[in-house]
Amino acid sequence: MDTRFMLLTSPPPPTNTHHFLHSPTPPSSLSLLSTTHHKKTPSMLQSSGTRINSTNTKSTWNFLDLKSEQQPEALDIDLPWYNPSDRPRFDVIVVGAGPAGIRLAEQVSLYGIKVCCVDPDPLSVWPNNYGAWVDEFDNLGLDDCFDKTWPMACVYVDEGRTKYLDRPYGRVGRNKLKRNLLEKCVSNGVRFCKSKVWKIDQQEFESTVFCDNGVELKGSLVVDASGFSSTFTEFDHRIKKKNEGFQIAHGILAEVDGHPFDLDKMVLMDWRDTHLGNEPYMRVNNSKIPTFLYAMPFDSNLIFLEETSLVSRPVLSYIEIKKRMVARLRHLGIRVKRILEDEKCLIPMGGPLPQIPQNVMAIGGTSGVVHPSTGYMVARTMALAPIVAFAISECLGSNRMIRGKPLHHKVWNSLWTSERRLNREFYTFGMETLLKLDLNGSRSFFDAFFDLKPHYWKGFLSSKLTPMELAQLSLSLFGHASNRSRFDIVTKCPIPLAKMIGNVALESI
């Protein structure tokens, strides 16, 4: 939900190292990944999710005692660097070389527009990994950018109910994706500046970007792709409290003795809580603010595991997340031998959109494109970047020179059309609903959600439904829901529902 819910920033905030997935894969983990297969070993010949018997002492199950083996890594690509004597000004300056920034730079430069991308380390490997539905990347021509794919996903609702989702899921190869986009940028003439932006001076027709190494760049349009922690994108000053929800997770790519999961299925959500049977304090807290396991089994001895709080307000304690994960892995009989990668994920969800329009354009985390109900963002940003790039080309491409307010209006409205704003209100209502559900309520919700026709749950997770389809989804979901879920929606969510209806009415005017 890269879950899973994934990060799309560059550079990411200090607390972020994914969601959904993570940092540089060391040679040892790459060699393990290269041997991935679907053949089951004897340790896997058991029902999925069944605890593995072990004679190890309790202390051997605390993987928190292990240190991650991941090391800093950089891509070996010959980038064209910015030279002041070469090109004093650009049409577009992109701040940030994360997935959002590089994707937009690549797309804008297709139109012959002069682009410069500024980042403290443009060649560094992204610290976050990402997961995505395979069909979404296929539709974008990025199907060769996966490290691993699974033909199906599954959701453990509880001990007795499991949903099988007939939709392939993949772990995005961050090295493959970044190399793909960077090489296209190089071919299209994008320049790169290795520096950190500390100030943007905005004028009506031209902006100046000040870098910490003394470089000053001038451009017709500045795009902020620097992530959630950015201070360059403005929000309505009248909004005193953003009222966001937060997704937090702890993940590890681990070498293990064995695990109980099927190799041909990734685990999108595991809501089971029997691992907390001997932890009454944690079990009570988990029943109020639940977490689930997200898992990608590469083979019988290599697996990515992530304990995730889908959304909470205020954010759930990171220590609590790790304690629950220790208890879960111990119950499942998963003994971690080595941690090849680890990551901490913190994603703001929902909250207000940036002020639209404004002189600085935004893309990625700071632009509001994170799915408020799930945290998904990477695939959506990959899909939206060409739309924004086309709008930019209509103003700055060829011999056109539409700048200032007309340019800002056009690019912002290409990202946030009235329909997308309406849809976001619905997704935000979904987030507010999830915030009010306890463990049993969450189980009932997703049990009903994945009983919907695939068109609806796939479209919802991929942000592809029209407002009318979202209304139909709501009616269908209410019809499929248990009596408990209907009661929760009616009694716990009247204020979020009223707020959504009011905001939709304002957007429709």
TrEMBL record:
Q: What processes in GO biological process is this protein linked to?
A: carotenoid biosynthetic process
List cellular component terms (GO).
Answer: plastid
- Subcellular location per the Swiss-Prot or TrEMBL entry: Plastid
Give the pathway: Carotenoid biosynthesis
Q: Where is this region: Disordered?
A: 1-27
What is the first-listed, main subcellular location in coarse terms?
plastid
Q: Does the keyword ATP-binding apply?
A: no
Q: Keywords on this record?
A: Carotenoid biosynthesis, Isomerase, Plastid, Transit peptide
* Gene Ontology MF annotations: cyclase activity; intramolecular oxidoreductase activity; oxidoreductase activity, acting on paired donors, with incorporation or reduction of molecular oxygen
Its family remark reads: Belongs to the lycopene cyclase family.
What name does this protein carry?
Lycopene beta-cyclase
